[in-house]
Write the structure tokens for this entry.
Amino acid sequence: MLGRPELVALGAPFAALVALGLTLAHDPTVGVELDLDRDRAIEGDVVDLTVTLTGEGLVELALILPAGVEVVEGKRAFAVRLRRGEPETLELRVRCARWGVYTLGETAVRAHDRFGLYTWEGRRADHLRLKVFPRPELLREPLAPLETQATTGNHVARAAGDGIEFADLRAYVPGDRVRNVNWRASARRGELWVNQMHPERNADVVLFLDTFTEAAHYGAGGTLDYGVRAAAALAAQYLEHRDRVGLVSFGGILNWLVPASGVVQRYRIVDALLDTEIVLNYAWKDVEIIPRGTLPPKALILALTPLLDERAVATLLDLRARGFDLTVIEISPVPYVAAAPGRADGVAYRLWLLRRELLRSRYRSVGVPIVEWREGTSAAAVLEEVRAWRRVHRFARA
Amino acid sequence: MATRSPVRARIGTGAAALVPAAALTVTAARGAGDWTWPIAGVALAGVAVAVVALVLGRAGLVGPALILLAAGYTTRLAGLDPGLDGRTPLVAAELVASGELAYLSIALRLPVAQARALVAGRAAFAVFEALGAAVVAAVVLAAAGLPAAGGASGDALGVFGAAVALGLVALLARRRASSR
């Protein structure tokens, strides 16, 4: 139209580039391999993640990490120029922010040809499993059960027998060992008296985790989070004291572990806790569905519950009625619930709080210590509150 | 191997992309008489779009920026004497260099492993492409200046050449599409 050949000269290089690019372009063969330096970590740990890339050309890669795992060193998305036969290795450090079982290894890859005419995009999944255990809270002394078992352990039993802790004095009877004679008391009374001791026994502890429902802030931890942490800490502490520890995850899905002791049991419990989740279920469930061997006689039951579901509340009362030594640790949902503006909502909120207080007094009236565990409160303080309650209400317990 | 966001390289290549664009504006507008301001206006609009593309990191705006720059030069050609403009190879090189460097700058928004080697390699490739563009433009311009190229037969040859070029590109693109 213009009769200007310059425009042809101006367009010719671009046409040549397009033709050259189309001729030389070929499908890329990008290989992505991810590797973790370990598959188990504790909450807050930093794990090394190695990304090995093979192929040719400019490759953009984005790691798709699940919530709860975050990159602290390195970048989640980056570009790299690859050369044939020369694998590139990138080191990233990821922090395990929250407990859980994570599947890492999903990556989004984008490759370009030499002239930028073509872009190839794809997703890969390597399915690297990373188990992040909750960081256990340090407990100086676990809560002692009211009744101990027959085998030797670290708890001072209430019954008299062979042990270290002094229990009482009684008159000598034939068959008593001379080493048990209390010579000072015998001299004062003019007849032989012997010392009685408390034997050291172990205990059966069952952690009862209420998983019917939870209160949580969106995207952050909630009552279940705290319950799992507390259960992990308590399990670790009791197992260190050579007690047998079991677990009942009572909710939409019932999970249980028969009480046992040792390191293996600790890993079993933690693994079971990692799988814990809220499953919505409307079916009525009570103590009858819990397998019999899971709740041995004289076991100390430590219930971790937000006291939000009527089924868990009723089951705990039922357990107490059956004579179990029950302690309720209430993972308080109150910090997660705010009163909505408005007079009626305010009244409803106060009624809800009063109802919870009524529920607590109901437990106390049947001799069950109930303590509230809120964010920021140490486990030791919570257990000390239980001990104090037990000291005061010793005679109220059947 | 560590990755990092090469901020300085990104800003450097972005600025380097604007240099040929500005040079093209000057090349197109200088000595155009009454057409100076219209040409400068169109070309400067291209520079402005390129700036927006670089600031926002929108690769889709680089193409329109190049089209506006080329439109500025086309405006000049429309108002020129019928003789061949010897600056066309330079303009072609400026266009290619500006586009390549702009795309490189936008690509560097992502953290890059071995950033220095990557930027050096891509920048060198951009220079190579610009030189190649200048050579191709010069060859086409020289061919257009041959005595045999005049008249209706010349026009027909030009149309045929353009059609062959387009057909070749379409054929290659189709072959690529069917092979994937």
User: Anything to note?
Assistant: Residues 69 and 96 of chain A are 5 Å apart (CA to CA). Chain A is about 25% helix and 35% strand.
